[in-house]
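Figure 3 (text version): structure tokens given as input.
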């Protein structure tokens, strides 16, 4: 098996695990507030984060090099987590994924003011087409825009913002710092809000929360292995396989059948996202490749981000010749 094929296979396994993880979130979301689910999923992730700390041999402190950017990333991670969990609980899985798949489009837009990226006509066209796909899924005017739709959009925007920050400061910040601050932020803020929404949880539901944390941890390890094995341009598009898992899981567990508009809109969004990924993978098409190098799982506060890859030599910027987009 070639390295690219192996990398793609590892990524497919990872996103299959993430989709299974989202089924547990949706099941618990029918009973508990997303605040409670986020809090306990983060709480149960701390032992796994401790293992990561124990294995980190890089010298230094846990004080961030860029405290203000880290504060922004932490705030974005908190908003992203609770918004995504709420969306999964209140929308069909396929609709939630379709909206979250707009994240690369938003990353492309945010890369202009934050990274100084120059986006030319071809990628602007792809972004515009992708946003049309979002409108097809949402159908404003034809259907009600619910709180679940708004939450999914918030998760996509905040996830894109958090990813762009990783791209901006990831080469200078320690991996454990990039991991711990959002986790602590979620723990403190969700823990404070928990007093207003808490419901007693039976042991089996706590066990489901533990499964959520473990699945996120294992899937993140698979994603890291996939990026270490294959080319990013091959691995990154594998995230879109989640729409297939969502269709199957939605039908089997929640009696959800994606309507025609969701299918069409998701196809448009995926096509535009794939164009941006492959466009950035071409030499000279992008100065910073913000989408390609910030591809990561969106909407899971217990997930280990790919910030470690952003600080590695394999994924650092290299000078590229200028070309027309």
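Below: residues designed for each position.
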């Amino acid at each position: 098996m070639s390295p690219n094929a192996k990398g793609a296979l590892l990524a497919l396994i990872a996103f299959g695990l993430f989709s299974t993880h989202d089924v547990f979130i949706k099941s618990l979301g029918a009973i508990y507030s997303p605040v409670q689910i986020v809090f306990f999923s983060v709480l149960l992730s701390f032992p796994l984060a401790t293992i990561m700390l124990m294995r980190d041999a890089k010298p230094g402190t846990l004080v961030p090099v860029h405290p203000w950017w880290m504060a922004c990333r932490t705030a974005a991670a908190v908003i992203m987590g609770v918004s995504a969990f709420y969306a999964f609980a209140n929308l069909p899985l396929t609709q939630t994924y379709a909206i979250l798949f707009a994240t690369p489009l938003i990353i492309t837009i945010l890369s202009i003011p934050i990274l100084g990226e120059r986006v030319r006509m071809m990628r602007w066209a792809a972004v515009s087409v992708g946003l049309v796909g979002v409108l097809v899924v949402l159908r404003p005017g034809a259907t009600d825009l619910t709180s679940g739709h708004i939450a999914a959009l918030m998760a996509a925007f905040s996830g894109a913002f958090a990813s762009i920050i990783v791209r901006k400061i990831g080469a200078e910040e320690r991996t454990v710092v990039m991991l711990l601050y959002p986790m602590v932020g979620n723990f403190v803020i969700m823990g404070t809000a928990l007093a207003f929404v808490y419901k007693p949880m039976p042991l089996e539901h706590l066990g489901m929360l533990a499964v959520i944390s473990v699945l996120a941890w294992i899937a993140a390890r698979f994603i890291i292995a996939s990026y270490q094995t294959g080319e990013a341009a091959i691995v990154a598009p594998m995230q879109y396989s989640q729409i297939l898992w969502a269709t199957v899981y939605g039908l089997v567990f929640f009696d959800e059948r994606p309507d025609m508009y969701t299918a069409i809109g998701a196809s448009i969004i995926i096509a535009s996202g794939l164009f941006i990924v492959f466009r950035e993978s071409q030499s000279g098409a992008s100065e910073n490749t913000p989408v390609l190098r910030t591809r990561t799982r969106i909407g899971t506060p217990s997930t280990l981000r790919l910030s470690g890859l952003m600080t590695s030599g394999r994924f650092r910027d290299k000078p590229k010749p200028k070309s027309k987009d």
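The chain has one domain: 3-299.
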